[in-house]
Write a structure and sequence with these properties.
The complex is a heterodimer of chains A (about 160) and B (about 625). Chain A is α+β, with helices and mostly antiparallel strands and about 160 residues long. Chain A is about 45% helix and about 10% strand. Chain A has 7 helices and 4 strands, in the order H-H-H-H-E-H-H-E-E-E-H. In chain A, a hairpin with a 2-residue loop joins strand 3 and strand 4. Chain A is elongated and about 50 Å long. With about 625 residues, chain B is an alpha/beta fold. Chain B has 5 domains: about 120 residues, Glutaredoxin, CATH 3.40.30; about 200 residues, Rossmann fold (3-Layer(aba) Sandwich), CATH 3.40.50; about 80 residues, Roll (Ubiquitin-like (UB roll)); about 90 residues, de novo design (two linked rop proteins) (Up-down Bundle), CATH 1.20.1440; about 55 residues, Alpha-Beta Plaits (2-Layer Sandwich), CATH 3.30.70. Chain B has 26 helices and 18 strands. Chain B starts with a helix and ends with a strand. The chains are: A alpha+beta (about 160), B alpha/beta (about 625). Chains A and B meet through helix 2, helix 4, helix 5 and helix 6 of A and helix 2, strand 10, strand 14 and helix 19 of B.
């Protein structure tokens, strides 16, 4: 998995998170989650800092960060588009919505546009199945988001 | 014998709740709006704002209450209006534009808007004002199978109370069961009650809950844990989300009761991060419970202490498996481990741990309050109680329903779910999520309970039921599940990591039109190996959807392999797109949409598709408004 090495990463944020959770049981994943929230993704230097501070091997932390799909080790786009392809959405045409985003933004699932404006992901079930097909645009759940609705939404965002 | 001081504690709790509710100054006129994640996604927030705005503008006396999911998702946003002396009416598919009319007609003038109404309360006790014929024509809650056939135990408060106000929960009997468990029952009595009730795990495996608690209690050690598995990763399942968003206290109370019975002092709710609203409401519930000495040290003044924490998942389906979940809390990769030892003996941080599903927890307070006999009188002989199902897919009324075990598939899909939309034919219903199986038309009379479904080759799973019609290709469907399962494999053991991939390759060959009869043998062999040798249930059950599809729809597989055709018209590699000459007007919409320039034709002249260049993407089919493009 490609990691973005940033020339100067400000470590004060992660240090503060580590300080707050010092001594807490089962803190590894919450720390990674909070850190990602603060930095937008998990830069290598930050993972190294967490490993150092917590006394864990870097490889172990790297193993955890790469296991869970929630963690990103490279920079993401300004706008995050997630299309659900869970069973109920799949059966209600999610594939067409996925294709639409692929075509209109020119980025495949899991990728980020070159201008870092959009990151596109396919996810598997957000739990709003009765309103399938479902998409999430910047944290906002869009119900009944057919390919046409998605096309409209993307048009408005790229104006 | 209950100590006067203990019952006094409970009485005070209830009285305090009533006082606070009265102090809220709630109007007798109540407007309820469903604000679960799906309600909000359908636009409930905007509707709520419109309601508040309109009420203020007209200076009307009414209280707007935001509740969790009612379950009639197909009609979201749902708004209920209840006035003293009038009927409770549920309005469906409400948008902000409808609000002024709703308020002025129904609230002010008392005219029910029958064209928007979905259901109403019955006329007994007789309302003060006589109701016109048109109102009586609206079906009552009991008339509508969606409501009338449900028995809501786990969902008893969802859609009724405001999940962010503990007073609402208390006033409806909340935490009374906890009081009984602490002051009137011994730990053994609590466990026996749950055992006799016959509650089985609602997460999918159906293990007897009382037995699990007993094993954990008996395991040696002073430190014990309780965990709530809220990782609900099955696509198509949102029962747990709805319970956590609509009634988080029932889970808190259930866990407290178990902690008392087992002797645990700490608990964790492991909730997937994709459920931010559920996490937020649970967080609030825990804070409120702390404020009232229902969590923390010396609960309700007793010597029982229990603390509850929330852990967020990080996007791994396999973490729904209990040992992977435990690994995740411990900060490791979510890789399951062999059992024994079972978590009841050695779980979180090596201590005895009882893990139960959200819905299981939600059933515990009513069982303690109403007794084992009451619970075991519902359901079938070996599957007691009710089950919450998430009915989705090609069905007219998708949503959430809680029904007694033993009801048939037919009743759920046709009576409650309203059948298949657009006059399409039912093909199958998929149960048990991506590791389950499907039931075709011939098995619609199957009763829904743990054992009947297993013998039919499907599974209960967590309760997701996805209805598919004639437009779904069973081969592609099986491939879809395999793609998901192989993606989510933790990678630890070879049978799952490699076996899943090989099986996916076989199915991809078949859907690409390159399958052979030998592939069917390969599927069989791979399935047997994975089922026998995978480390955990993910690997063991990955072949199930494929085996189930093959069992009931072999002719479709043969069509793909032998005839190189996809009967449902889905597998693009096997499709053939053509333009019908006498329907084509030469508008060139298809030509423009074609990504490879495979369509030829001058304006206003009949167009044609160059099959050599066609990549079968279907854009022309989608875009043509005259049905001139056909696929075969």
């Amino acid at each position: 998995m490609e990691m973005t090495a940033s020339p100067s990463v400000n470590l004060s944020q992660v240090d503060s998170i580590l300080q707050q959770r010092k001594g807490e049981m089962g803190a590894v994943i919450p720390i990674l989650q909070e850190t990602q929230e603060a930095y937008g993704y998990l830069p290598r230097e930050v993972i190294e800092r967490i490993a150092d501070t917590m006394g864990l091997p870097f490889s172990q932390l790297y193993g955890v960060a790469t296991f869970y799909s929630q963690f990103y080790l490279s920079r993401r786009g300004k706008n995050i588009i997630k299309v659900c392809d869970g069973t109920a959405c799949h059966v209600r045409g999610a594939v067409r919505t996925v294709d639409t985003v692929h075509k209109d933004l020119g980025v495949s699932p899991g990728g980020t546009t070159d201008d870092y404006n959009f990151t596109f992901e396919v996810v598997y079930c957000l739990g709003a199945c009765a309103l399938a097909p479902v998409a999430v645009v910047n944290g906002q759940v869009k119900a009944r988001c057919t390919a046409e609705r998605m096309r409209q939404t993307l048009k408005e965002m790229t104006k | 014998m209950p100590q006067p001081s203990a019952m006094e504690q409970l009485r005070q709790l209830k009285e305090q709740a009533i006082t606070e509710i009265n102090a809220r100054g709630d109007s007798a006129t109540k407007i309820t709006i469903g604000m679960g994640t799906c309600g909000i996604a359908a636009g409930a927030r905007e509707v709520m704002h419109a309601l508040l705005h309109e009420l203020e503008a007209l200076n009307l006396d009414a209280t707007v209450v935001a509740t969790g999911c009612v379950g009639l998702c197909s009609q979201e946003p749902l708004v209920d209006i209840e006035q003293p002396g009038g009927l409770r009416v549920t309005y469906g598919k409400v948008n902000p534009q409808m609000v002024p009319t709703l308020i002025s007609e129904h609230l002010v003038k008392g005219h029910v808007l029958t064209q928007w109404a979905v259901a109403r309360g019955s006329t007994t006790p007789a309302p003060v004002r006589p109701q016109p014929e048109s109102v009586r024509s609206i079906p009552t809650y009991d008339d509508i199978p969606f409501y009338g056939m449900q028995v809501r135990i786990a969902l008893r408060n969802c859609g009724v109370i405001n999940p962010e106000e503990i007073q609402d929960y208390i006033v409806r009997g909340g935490y009374e069961a906890l009081g009984r468990a602490i002051f009137e029952m011994s730990p053994e009595e609590i466990i026996n009650t749950v055992k006799q009730a016959g509650l089985r795990g609602r997460g999918g495996a159906g293990f007897p809950t009382g037995l699990k608690w007993e094993l954990t209690r008996k395991a040696p050690g002073d430190v014990k844990y309780i965990i709530c598995n809220a990782d609900e990763g099955d696509p198509g399942a949102f029962m747990d989300r709805s319970i956590l968003e609509g009634d988080p206290h029932t889970v808190v109370e259930g866990m407290l009761i178990a902690a008392r019975a087992i002797g645990a002092t700490e608990g964790y709710v492991y909730c997937r991060a994709e459920y931010p609203l559920a996490i937020k409401r649970l967080q609030k519930a825990i804070e409120e419970a702390h404020e009232r000495a229902l969590l923390g040290e010396n609960i309700l003044g007793s010597d029982f202490s229990f603390d509850l924490h929330i852990k967020q998942g990080a996007g791994a389906f396999v973490c729904g498996e209990e040992t992977a979940l435990i690994a995740s809390i411990e900060g490791r990769r979510g890789e399951p481990r062999p059992r024994p030892p079972f978590p009841a003996v050695s779980g979180l941080w090596g201590k005895p741990t009882s893990i139960n599903n959200v819905e299981t927890w939600a059933n515990v307070p009513p069982i303690i309050s109403h007794g084992a006999e009451w619970f075991s009188s519902i359901g079938t002989e070996k599957s007691k109680g009710t089950k919450v199902f998430a009915l989705t897919g090609k069905v007219n009324k998708p949503g959430l329903v809680e029904v007694p075990m033993g009801i048939t598939m037919q009743e759920i899909i046709y009576d409650i779910g309203g059948g298949i939309p657009n006059d399409k034919k039912f093909k199958a219903v998929q149960t048990g999520g991506p590791l389950g199986g499907c039931l075709p038309t011939s098995m619609l009379e199957t009763p829904v309970d743990y054992d009947s479904l297993t013998s039919a080759g499907a599974t209960m799973g967590s309760g997701g039921m996805i209805v598919i019609d004639e437009d779904t290709c069973m081969v592609e469907f099986a491939k879809f599940f395999l793609t998901f399962a192989t993606d989510e494999s933790c990678g630890q053991c070879t049978p799952c990591r490699v076996g899943g991939k090989r099986m996916l390759e076989v199915l991809t060959r078949i859907t690409d039109g390159k399958g052979t009869m030998n592939d069917l043998k390969e599927i069989d062999q791979l399935a047997k190996t994975m089922a026998d040798t995978s480390l955990c249930a993910l690997g063991q059950l990955t072949p199930n959807p494929t085996l189930s599809s093959l069992r009931h729809f072999k002719e479709e597989f043969l069509a793909h392999i032998v005839d190189k055709k996809c009967p449902a018209g889905v597998c693009t590699a096997l499709l053939h797109f053509d333009i019908v000459a006498d329907k084509c007007k030469g508008c060139s919409l298809c030509l423009i949409s074609c990504p490879t320039g495979a369509i030829e034709g001058a304006r206003k002249q009949v167009h044609s598709i160059n099959q050599d260049k066609c990549i079968k993407c279907g854009s022309c089919y989608d875009v043509c408004r005259l049905d001139a493009v056909i696929k075969s």
